[in-house]
Amino acid sequence: YLSSKLYYNVSEYKAAIVALKNSLRDFPNSKYREEQLFLILKSAYTLADNSVRTKQKERYQSTIDEYYTFIGEYPQSEYAKEAKKMYEASMKFLGN
């Protein structure tokens, strides 16, 4: 968990997504699962937001997918409000 979170903290968002997903795969019952899913979402959104124009559409779509994964498991999360903002910004970018 901590090593995967380190990638997020140093703004390596692609690596953070991979490491966090690997951590969840290896430790599916982690007590940090909610935060890990949120960090995957936040990393995907930040990556999309900072991407070159040609990659943004695909990356915003990925953000939306990660939002559904997160909110499906934790609809009452303390992160839900921030997650919804990222979702809405992604939808707006995609014209939905």
Gist of the model:
With 96 residues, the protein is mostly helical.
Largest β sheet strand count, sense and barrel closure: none
CA radius of gyration is 13 Å
How many beta-strand elements?
Answer: 0
What is the molecular shape?
A: globular
Mean pLDDT: 96
**Strand percent estimate:** under 5%
| Weakly predicted, low-confidence segments | none
Helix content: over 70%
- Helix-and-strand structural type: mainly alpha
The tally of helices reads: 5
Distance linking N and C termini: 34 Å
Order of helices and strands: HHHHH
What features would you describe in this structure?
This protein is mostly helical. Helices cover 78% and strands 0% of the residues. The chain contains five helices and no strands. The protein has helices spanning 2-9, 13-26, 33-49, 53-73, 80-94. The longest helix has 21 residues, at 53-73. The protein is globular. 32% of the residues are buried. The mean pLDDT is 96.
List its salient traits.
single chain, 78% helix, 96 residues
Task: Itemize the secondary structure elements and their pairings.
Elements: H1 2-9, H2 13-26, H3 33-49, H4 53-73, H5 80-94
